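Translate sequence into structure tokens.
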Amino acid sequence: MQTRDFPFTSRGTECAAWLYRPDGDGPHPVVVMAHGFTGTRELALTSYAERFASAGIGVLLFDYRYFGVSGGQPRQLLDIGSQLDDWRAAIAAARGISWADPGRIALFGSSYSGGHVVRLASEDRRIAAMVAQCPFSDGAATMRVLPPVHAMRISAHALRDQARALLGKAPHYIPAVAEPGQLGMMNTPDAKAGMEALVPAGSTWQNRVAARIGLRVPLYRPGRLAKNVECPALWCVTDKDTLCPADNTVKWASTAPRAEIKRYPIGHFDIYLGEDFERAVADQTEFLTRHLLD
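Result follows.
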């Protein structure tokens, strides 16, 4: 396995990426990966990438614009349209790799990006396989499990940030994760500790995000597009998820023609580490090798 920097351009902005090349001449399949809500590539996703590459599958793991070491201003701006464009640019870059098989490009998304890959696979019929891990499927369902006071507080900060954007001013930021009762986009009991457990020394991750995303979360419902995902698709659902309700995710996933659903009796952040990670990555590696290598 070889790893190197592999920057690509998305609508004029350079996105940082790591490219994992499996042993052998190829051509090899490639899994395109990116993280969830404010996450950067080094937050546990390298463990998945290494496992897939060791199994003979290449990986392109990237940071969105505005995050990590990718370009773009203002920083920490979570813009759904821009992130989807970055995914499309990453997929195009993967198809152009000299040792890659452009007919065997797969997608792996986790949490917020788990919703992105459902949308992308629904629109790109050339995608060979998809993995959505603890995916954000339905903003309306997520909002229903939030305390009303918290939702109102987030909305107030989001409106403030949106007003600043319209006036050409710098973003108004709020924490991405916080303790229960404190201000943060995610303040469930496991959110702050769960996120911080993924952050390695020297990480580029910052615990802040432009608050305007709070206006968009309720309207983003990528799970509704699952019925249009024609490729083999694996949903890894965390049953004790306090951010992305499991039953809602399963409802949407079940509409996909070639869906495979794995359920784990754990929380949203548990799947990245320890024995829970080992179970999930074993299921994902088996799924990807079956559809990309067999």
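Note: DSSP finds nine helices and twelve strands in the chain.
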